[in-house]
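Researcher: Structure for this, please.
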Amino acid sequence: MPTPARHADLHGFAPDSCPVALLLVDVVNGFDFDGGERMLAHARPAAERIAGLRQRARAAGVPVVYVNDNVGRWRDDFPAVVRHHLRTEAPGRDVAERLRPAPDDYAVLKAKHSAFFQTALDALLAHLGTRTLVLAGFATDVCVLATALGATMRDLHVVVPSDASAAADPADHDAALAYLRRVADAATPPAADVDFEALGQWADGRGQTADE
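Model: Predicted structure, token format:
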């Protein structure tokens, strides 16, 4: 006798259901690390485009998921991480302030480069019904790249807007995007060309085809 599905809404704590999610990787960032100020020059313009993506995602009913490095030796929760990066002396405080999460956004702490490695992200995306993942954040050639490859391994369609992430060296940024197009079949349009409603319709059709 089949066992009925239980806790389909993640015990009530993942109320959204959408075939598309916007994943923001290490965007709450004070850039207070070696080489951070060099990356910051490229991150500031990317942050404005990430903010626009986030606004359009929310307007389209697309869940926004933040995944950030833990900075407190595993003693901090996500709000404490945000407070850490909003310190007055943090070089990139303006970026952290611009991109800080809203109360309705989702938040996951990570320990390594990939947002999927030993985190709750898999479970969250499964309960949201995500099939297409739009990825933005820092750095393109490190955590964004590792996360995008992890998403591809899970058969998610990946979109990495070409101007909504940054690396310390623009050549490394471009090389990471080229690698994702070649290996992960990722789409890398400009952020302004990301149409969340169209992506949702495409993902819905893809899911129906897979289920038939």
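Researcher: Any notable elements?
Model: Residues 20-205 form a domain with the Rossmann fold fold (CATH 3.40.50.850). The chain has one domain: 20-205.
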